[in-house]
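Reviewers of the previous submission asked for a worked example of the structure-prediction workflow described in the proposal, so we include one complete record here. The input consisted solely of the amino acid sequence. No template or homolog information was supplied to the procedure at any stage.
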Amino acid sequence: MDTLLTNIGQLVTPIRQPLRRVDGGAALRVIRNTTLAIHNGRIQGIGVERGSGDVTVIDARGGVVMPGLIDPVWVLTESPDWERQDESAQAPDELYLSWNQRLLERGMRMGVTTLELKCPVSRSHDRLSALSHLGRRLRPRTIGAVLASIHGDGRTSEENLSSLVSEVIPGVRQRKISTFLDLLWTARAGFAAEARTVLRAARGAGLRTQVSLHDGGAEDEFLNMVGEMEIASISCASFLSPRAVTVLIENDITPVYLPNVMEGSSVCGIDVRALVDSGVPLAIGSGFGLNGSTTSSMWMAMGSAMARMGLSLDDVIEASTLNNAYALDISEDAGSLEPGKWADLMVLDLEDYREMGHCLGVLAPTIVMINGNLVSSS
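From that input alone, the workflow returned the following structure tokens.
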């Protein structure tokens, strides 16, 4: 069945462009008083009239239509103490799934249509399987990632390295649990060689790779490594110097900033505005589940990016949609409203999209659609 979204006051979308830019600043297209046609879960056209077939018409009531938000950094979390202590609670694994499912569905109702679910490898394969279970049981669209570390968990680095290469990565491949392996970078002597071993093993198993930075240091070693490896994105890019971020862009690697994460190095210490003006297409995520994260809200991340990083509203719209799609290697299908892409979108009860800058902390879409399906409405 086809769908026609009518009475759109403004359709707002980033414009697809190469990852390496020539001119700085976000590029948004705003189309007024239009319609959007959906066929087989994908956008068929903008500004088209109702067809002759079986069409479901949805009235946007003059609101603002924009792509669904994409969150590239969301970590699965244990259920809270108060829920685990409840005598009537579910079994631990079911409670774990139920808790995360509720959180994710709440995010969907707030306009998140795609997110990357990261599961720490220390949770064991049973917990890693939650990635595939949740992907089948709920919306939004989920992309699984194994969050791996070579250092810690009470074992030596050699033991962790051996476990990742000989057990975890083959197990993930066999069970088809994850799309990405996200390796936590550690600034210590000899780590770069270990990281190469893990990332090559992951690529050999058919996994895409990412690197997370939770502290600074050993930047030159890090840059030498990323120049050799096929890495999609770097999380917590606020720990990198502007020079390092420029190197990432030259290697088609998307830097992801986490303005909701308050611990550690402050993004205020880096002139992110200058990076954007120079053509760096940065991405932003909620960072939910990481130490120091304050909220799962992508709206709050957008507001924090404006307040703490000096970004404009247009910048954060592009960062939380199209640039996040680049970070997850799905930019051909998601991140903007263009014919042929997934019909992942939301409708906001606003007369003009620029009103968002005054209400980012309290926005709630009136309509959310994923693959052309109505998943939330009010």
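The chain has eleven helices and 16 strands. We consider this example representative of the routine output the project will generate in years two and three.
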